[in-house]
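Lay summary

Proteins are chains of building blocks that fold into shapes. Our project writes down both the chain and a compact code for its shape. Here are two examples, one after the other.
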Amino acid sequence: MAAASTCQWGTAYSTMGARLDVVETLNGLLQAAAPLIKALAR
């Protein structure tokens, strides 16, 4: 839920002309997609 809220704020600031940098705080991008990535790698 917090990520969606953060994304919405990012969109609002971007619309007003702010420059945004995305920072990933986990060990990698899209951690929940790991099983899908493993299946596709086969």
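And here is the second example, written the same way.
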Amino acid sequence: MQKTVKSLLNTLLYRHQLGFEIFDLLAILVDFGLEKHELRWARLVEKTPVYKSPTPYHPAPVYKSPPPPTPVYKSPPPPKEPYYPPHTPVYKSPSPPVKPYHPTPVYKSPPPPTPVYKSPPPPTPVSSLRSPTTSEAIPSCTSIQVSDPPPPVKPYHPAPVYKSPIPHHQ
């Protein structure tokens, strides 16, 4: 023990002369304290008697439960394809017939009937080339028959379709 202390002191002085820092000195002192503690512990262990039991110590065996069996996963069998014997032909049902598309006919109203005008009666033939008399030269109003003109035909206009006004975004 005395040799250890002397060697530590010599080391301290030597390091101090070389200019080591204070942290090194503290580390050496801590080492010295640990050595002292270890020496005390060694003495304590030497002084304590070791008692031997009359029967040897056999610890109880530790039983481990067996591991659970690993589950065996079976993959599903592959899907079976239908079996057709060689002599049996495979028939596919025909697809249903496609109905032709007939659009709904659009009905247009018939045009208005055109008015039938009567042609004027042919002029009465003037008897041979004789000169007309005064009464024949100027016909009277009663002798000429004028038919009333037909009423004017109104043009056909379908009813207008009104759409709601589109709102203007501002």
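What can we say about the second shape? The two ends are 103 Å apart (CA to CA).
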